[in-house]
Design brief:
Oligomer: single chain
Low-confidence stretches: none
Helix content: 40-55%
Radius of gyration: 17 Å
CATH class: Alpha Beta
Largest sheet: 4 strands, antiparallel
Shape: globular
CATH architecture: 3-Layer(aba) Sandwich
Number of domains: 1
CATH topology: NADH Oxidase
Strand content: 15-25%
Bound molecules: flavin mononucleotide
Structural class: alpha+beta
């Protein structure tokens, strides 16, 4: 799939079929995240793949806006390894760079999933303590986002975007 088609065609999917996602596809998607840029190439991003329905149900319960995690056959818990994040830039690496590193990796993974015919949806509002316990994260690994993954059971229309002329400024703001 052409990269521009992938960027424009990807949608947040909130309804999924029960069809399991093949392990090799999950690996391909996480590998796309691995190739994302990272600050100083620190590569702090790690992913815990959760397919267990009970765990997904708990994750849905402790999430503010992600009931769909119950039905999506896979939840990708995108985490940041704080030791790696801290290694080059200290606390700035943790507070500033790590969320950026995780976000670009997530976008890579969502585009890769779309190119493979799969849907995703990003969830960042969840009880981090409960999720951390649920998937046995060590102290130095912080959960950042949960990405639902599965075969779409809906084909959402694209939510509108601000026009290009409104967000693109040449040489100076308003130019
Ligand atoms: C940081 C971030 C957090 C998001 N959190 C949620 C969420 O908790 N629940 C949800 O249903 N969608 C969530 N979304 C998806 C947005 O609602 C969606 O991207 C936006 O409406 C545009 O739709 P599109 O992704 O189909 O282009 C999130 C997206 C981002 C980038």
């Amino acid at each position: 799939m052409d990269v521009f088609d992938a960027i424009k065609g990807r949608r947040s999917v909130r309804k999924y079929t029960s069809r399991p996602v093949e392990r090799e596809l999950i690996e391909k998607i996480v590998d796309a995240g691995r190739w994302a840029p990272s600050s100083g190439n620190t590569q702090p991003v790690e992913v815990v793949v959760v397919t267990d329905p009970e765990k997904r149900s708990i994750m849905a319960d402790v999430s503010g806006y992600a009931r769909y995690l119950k039905d999506a056959p896979v939840a990708l818990v995108v985490c940041v390894n704080l030791s790696r994040a801290r290694s080059r830039y200290g606390e700035l690496g943790v507070s500033y760079f790590a969320p950026l590193d995780a976000s670009v990796a997530i976008q890579n993974m969502m585009l890769a999933a779309h190119a493979l015919g799969l849907g995703t949806c990003w969830d960042s509002v969840f009880d981090k303590v409960k999720v951390r316990e649920l998937i046995c994260l060590p102290e130095h690994v912080e959960p950042f986002a949960i990405i639902a993954l599965g075969y779409p059971a809906e084909n959402p229309s694209p939510p509108s975007r601000r026009p290009l002329r409104e967000i693109l400024h040449w040489e100076k703001y308003g130019g």
